[in-house]
Amino acid sequence: MSRFYVIFATDKPGMLAVRERVRPSHRAYLRNAAAGQSVSVRLGGPMLDARADTMNGTLLVIEAEHIDDVQRFVSDDPYMHAGIFERVEIRPWDWSLGNPERGI
Predict the structure, then answer these.
(1) Residue 18 belongs to a domain
(2) Number of domains in the chain
(3) Is the pTM higher than 0.85?
């Protein structure tokens, strides 16, 4: 049975230029997740600073059978290979409100 996982990834300070350079390959990786992967990216986007004008992290909602699959997927992300993140947290999540499959 699959479940949802939320990934909160916070950038190291001073990584904006690297993030912007690697972003196209990161986005392609996320869009191609279903091809040959055991995960499905359901939604995501960059987190922003307090002024909401600078990217400083990533939030993803992933559907997968096992947290190990999510950890593998995250570890292969181009952002991880570029060393952008200071901290990455993966948490199981019960998507109830707003889940189109539950109709609420």
Answers:
(1) yes
(2) 1
(3) yes
